[in-house]
Amino acid sequence: MSITNFRSADAQAGAQTVTPKVTFQTLQEKKQAGRPIAALTAYDYATARLVDEAGVDLILVGDSLAMVVMGYDSTLPVTMDEMLHHTRAVRRAVKHAIVVADMPYGSYHVSVAEGVANAARFVKEAGAEAVKIEGGAARCELVQRLTEAEIPVVCHLGLTPQAVHRMGGYKVQGKTLAAAEELARDARMLEAAGASLIVLEGMPREVASIITSQLRIPTIGIGAGPDCDGQILVFHDLVNLSFSRPAKFVRQYGDAAALFRNAIEGYVHDVEERSFPDDAESYHVSREVIDALKAPEAGETLRAPSKAHLVRKA
Ligand code: KIV
Question: Which atom of ligand 1 sits closest to the CA of residue 134?
């Protein structure tokens, strides 16, 4: 950030929140009223601020940051410390949406106690309002313990990227009767255990629709069709910053890659042509200062400060 253009505390304080704070009760009311929930991921201050100001209800600091921000080829390597770091940045930007932190692989798989302790770090150290965990019935005890610890839980069923090796790749789940029944049963069990919301990823539209109609809590779909109570996408997919062929369920609403590339190439061109910065983009001093600076004694002063000056400084 330019030193002459930093955000002032006053500007921040003056920024009015025009939309009321979203809570899980708001999302529940939206489900009941049949009003869709808009969710999106964000990983840093600038994008979280744009996402929040656009009126998104829920912002997930997804472990997808391992792929879209850090360049890994799966979500598995991202650590607790990295997730905490990004959650803090998002938290500072968001005034309106619910901020959910994604628990990274390994942070809740060893024991329930460790899962609760790590989830509490997201709330206490990073300002998250809820955590998200992947998996079905096997997570019920953790969901219950988190709920008892006053931490709202978002569950994640279907194509769960942390299970990429078990699934044998990123494949649509719930395509057989048995698999679809298991997903529906898992969803009901997670709701009974206390989940506040369930993300349904990568499953047939029909299965997601039935699960949604069987639950009191809202569902948020990604690659699960239009009948969920809401939708979520990865921010970088939405604006073409993922550097990969978009999945079938992604709709791109902008081309940030083209926008950024164009801006960066323009900057490089102007620097190379010496047309940036121009005179209007430069700071100036008065004629007197310039003349004095050019005088030989001024040069001397710059090269060797007088003893008197050194004494004054000391
Ligand atoms: O990490 C993530 O971005 C997610 C969403 C795809 C739901 O889990």
Answer: 8
